[in-house]
TrEMBL record:
The organism's taxonomic lineage, starting at the top: Eukaryota, Fungi, Dikarya, Ascomycota, Pezizomycotina
Gene Ontology terms: biological process: positive regulation of transcription by RNA polymerase II
Primary localization: nucleus
Protein name (Swiss-Prot/TrEMBL): Transcriptional regulatory protein
Localization (cell): Nucleus
Gene for this chain: moc3_2
Keyword set, alphabetical order: Nucleus
Organism in which the protein naturally occurs: Lachnellula hyalina
Amino acid sequence: MAPGMGIKAPVPRTRTGCLTCRKRKVKCDESKPICSRCQRLQRECTWSDDMQVIPHTQHLDFTSTSRTNNDLSDHPALHLTRPSGQSFVIEFPDIDRATVPYIHHFASFCSRFLAYPNDSEGNPFQEELAPLAISSPALLHSMAALAAAHLSRTQKHHEIIATNYYSMALRELNAGLSDPAVARSDSALGACLLLCVYEITRSENSTWHEHLQGARDLILYRGGPKKDDYLTRFFSLLDVSGSLVSGTGTLIQGTYWLEDDENFGTDSPKKVNKWPYYDNANQVVDDFHHLMIYMAKLSALSAEAMGNQDPAIVAEKAAEIHEELWEWWSQSAPSLRDQSNDWRRLPRLQKLSVAETLEEEAYSSTKSVFAGCIIYLNHILDPCGHEPQKAEVIKAISEVLEIAKETPEGYGLEMGLYWGLFMAGVAVFNDHVAEDLIRRKLKADVSVSIYHADRVLELLEVLWKRQHQYNTKYDWRQVQIQMGIQVYVKSQNSINLYLLIEKFHRFIFA
């Protein structure tokens, strides 16, 4: 069992073979750093000693045989070894022993998939946020809640544990916000964002939007978004992605996720965030951050169209966004724009490294988001398919399906591909082959993914069933409202449910 993938008491066993081969129950030749099978199949090759929990009793000993006397401690600790070979230890003096495996799972798995897939080198959630949990019960319990919630996807006995940690995190966060210093801390904002992800992964209600609103208020109370801050970047990803589905526009106006303009032309060097580690010179992130501009504009336009805005005004704004979107695409990096959808099968003199593979996956994800934006833009103008589908929509659907088809089965999909698949599912009409592909790909292996698409797939299934039954196109936004799963809940209806909002407003608007 891979580190963090279970809470069973450890038993003696052989620690050979990479975790990827062991999970798939196939023989591993144990070549390091990448075994031959993973290299051939272009899979992530991970090993069980990448991260270990060092507890303080033999009864809970998860440590590897390589632990030295210098590692021994009277306190539970996280021992992180990066792929580069560097390592550090985080001790938790007051942690309950039952919580240790969940913190282990958060640090060894969940943190690596919060924003970018397999983000295992220089991950700020591991290296900057996790240490703050030592002095922040709210953050500690938020981390444990998210870890337990993910484990409950395949092991149901973790559900009640996840709920308990979630309740404790809310209680601790609510109590701590009476202190202005706590309200301005990274630990409070981090806890709020993790609770948001918790609700997204639970996929049972729309409370995630209240948590995101709470994070927005905390960011404003801290003086506003800081574009080079990893928590602001994470918030922006959740904010923009969520706004596409909720149809409400972003919670913070403007392109706050882009670099500060004042950094340019000054003597101070521009800060380069080496996150994710496989993104050379921030090319992947820069491309996606600029695409987020148009994602936010489409979200706002959808809200206007749903709010009975004059169709002529909506059409005029749509034409502007359409022109800007295609201009951006024409000027985007060739590594993105010209990427072949079958890049995994292209002949190469040398196999792609793990980092190079992840970079290509990120480009595929961005391409899928771009295609999804093209589909969404046309859907806003013609939600019920009264006009024949435009050539660009047909091409966008084809691009998404080709990318999805090339993604290996059981492979953790990027968040961007989820959006592209959803929009392709909205756009296809009585196409059983396309529906089957989308259905299969949205059911990602939960062992390699934090985010899942249960509610999205549920919505598509209802949409497809109606279209097959009545041979008529339907607006997925209206179907979502009719199903009672509209993800946006007005803040004034959620204050009693989420007491943090009241304290945020007391601090910010008093």
